[in-house]
Amino acid sequence: MRSVLPNGGKLLVSASGGSLPRWRRDGKEIFYLNATGELMAAAVKSNESSLEIGIAKPLFQMHLESFLPSYDVAPDGQRILIVTSLAQKQPSPITVVVNWTAGLDRQ
């Protein structure tokens, strides 16, 4: 990781922490997961001598199954690809009773 600031300094993006950061390809936005699993986005303004991070806004709740990088942001920041797996549930068995009226006659 390297600093994007000319002086090598650091900027605070989140006071409450975050993980799995992703930059929008044009550098105008940064995305990350907060402590509760919400995907956050903060606008970034830059010029030749400074970088300013806006207030992060929640986009939606993520349900990630690991800490591996499992999402990415489209170059324009308008779409997000999320890798997830669906739980494979066993289908409920179906019981078909044939000639059930005959069973009623025996009672």
Describe this structure in words.
This protein is mainly beta and 107 residues long. 6% of the residues lie in helices and 31% in strands. It is built from one helix and seven strands, in the order E-E-E-E-E-E-E-H. It has one helix at 100-105; strands spanning 19-23, 29-33, 38-46, 51-53, 57-61, 71-73, 80-82. Strands 1, 2, 3, 4 and 5 form a five-stranded antiparallel beta sheet that branches. Strands 6-7 form a two-stranded antiparallel sheet. Strand 3 and strand 4 form a beta hairpin.
Topology:
Elements: E1 19-23, E2 29-33, E3 38-46, E4 51-53, E5 57-61, E6 71-73, E7 80-82, H1 100-105
Antiparallel strand pairs: 1-2, 2-3, 3-4, 3-5, 6-7
Order of helices and strands: EEEEEEEH
Radius of gyration: 25 Å
Structural shape: rod-shaped
User: Termini distance?
Assistant: 79 Å
Please give the count of helices: 1
The profile of the biggest β sheet is: 5 strands, antiparallel
State the helicity in percent bands.
under 10%
Low-confidence stretches: none
- Structural class per helix/strand content? mainly beta
Overall mean pLDDT: 79
Please give the number of β-strands. Answer: 7
% residues in beta strands: 25-35%
